[in-house]
Write a structure and sequence with these properties.
Length: about 400
């Protein structure tokens, strides 16, 4: 994200878009669509996200199309996310590692999306396999669909974190995987850009989460720059905003898709930069807690009179100073924001500096001029590369 900014281009081959682009509504059309979107995203976005069900609808041919598109993305050096939104019992979801996350996997991706509603612990082994293989995951916490908040803001009655929301528990469990990681972790959350009015209800604070955040909802679903600034105020360069139809609707010409990608990337970068600055200003404006020996009322009175405050020191009781040898046990149900704040301030300082100083300069990308009626699969030298993923 430091190089290409916080945009993730969604590759969603909707049937209406395939027809609009002049492609057949089948697996071949979906693959051609994906290849054009990849060319538009390369060098202009941090990552691409494949909407897996829109390939799956075509059966085995659709899966083969997704395999080839993922292979092409790897050869182009584009980070890939497969939006499969899977969840289930541990023995079931472990198969996802073989499909998407291990070397030689048929649909090898950099990250996948997961649903935690069998309980986050059902995902623990899968998340562990992702990390062991240098991959990542994004777990749904507060999604962009309006009806999702009724479940995600529900209060837990038993188990971990009773009295907290479902979304809070998901965020806390994900943050545990990122503890002790220098910089950004690899276990991320899905937090929609459309849920600003429900942020307090959800119990989730994105500004203290130290993993990546995948944020759908910008553009076609209604979220705007002001929503990004509301939801992600105080974040430090770890938000990846996914945009699909607002870009693909400008197709099929790659020049038009590329221009739309660049424009949206700049808008998203600016909005998140302002969100970071606003959070920094609010943090700086917060009054420091008074020394335990200073009477705040007396100090405030002197300030109101315009006179220099005279500090009235009260003797500290013996109970005020904890014993040096006493270790305060960590509350296992403490807010994940409290546990993450110290790590955030240390590990994100460099990231914040990078975001402030980075200027987005799109790299030169060769734009194909071949008419789409002549698009072919497998005939381009660009994709005639031996797949060596099984040898990694």
């Amino acid at each position: 994200m430091d190089m290409y900014g916080p945009l993730c281009v969604g590759i969603d081959p909707h049937r209406k878009l395939l027809a609009k682009w002049g492609y057949n509504v089948d697996a071949k059309g979906a693959e051609l669509f994906a290849m054009r979107m990849l060319q538009a995203a390369q060098g202009r976005a941090a990552a691409v996200k494949f909407q897996m069900p829109m390939f799956e609808r075509y059966g085995s041919k659709g899966f083969a199309a997704l395999e080839r598109a993922l292979f092409a993305a790897r050869q182009m050096g584009v980070i890939t996310i497969v939006d499969c939104l899977r969840g289930g019992l541990p023995t079931t979801v472990s198969a996802l590692a073989d499909a998407y996350l291990k070397p030689g996997a048929p649909m090898l991706a950099d990250a996948i999306t997961l649903l935690p509603y069998y309980g986050f612990r059902s995902l623990t082994n899968l998340v562990g396999e992702a990390l062991e293989n240098g991959r990542g995951v994004f777990v749904a916490s507060v999604t962009s669909n309006t009806e999702g908040i009724s479940l995600q803001s529900a209060i837990r009655q038993r188990g971990d974190f009773p009295g907290q929301t479902v979304a809070y528990g998901v965020a806390h469990a994900a943050q545990n995987f990122n503890e002790g990681v220098e910089g950004m972790g690899s276990v991320g959350l899905i937090i929609g850009a459309t849920i600003g009015q429900w942020m307090k209800t959800s119990g989730v604070d994105p500004s203290v989460f130290t993993g990546p955040i995948l944020s759908p909802g910008y553009g076609w679903q209604g979220a705007e720059a002001k929503d990004l600034k509301t939801v992600f105020k105080g974040t430090k360069g770890n938000v990846l905003v996914t945009v699909s139809r607002s870009i693909s609707s400008k197709g099929p010409e790659i020049a038009d898709l590329s221009a739309a990608t660049e424009a949206i990337a700049l808008d998203v970068r600016q909005a998140l930069y302002e969100a970071m600055e606003e959070g920094d200003k609010e943090q700086a404006a917060e009054p420091e807690a008074p020394h335990p020996g200073i009477d705040p009322a007396l100090t405030a009175a002197h300030l109101a009179d315009g006179n220099p405050p005279q500090v009235h020191i009260k003797p500290l009781s013996a109970t005020t100073v904890p014993s040096v040898s006493h270790q305060i046990p960590q509350n296992p149900q403490a807010s994940y924001s409290q546990q993450a704040t110290q790590q955030q301030s240390q590990s994100r300082q460099t990231s914040a500096t990078t975001v402030k100083s980075t200027r987005y300069v799109p790299s030169a990308v060769r734009v194909a001029t071949t008419p789409r009626t002549n698009d072919t699969l497998g005939n381009s030298d660009r994709f005639k590369i031996e797949d060596r993923s099984s040898k990694l």
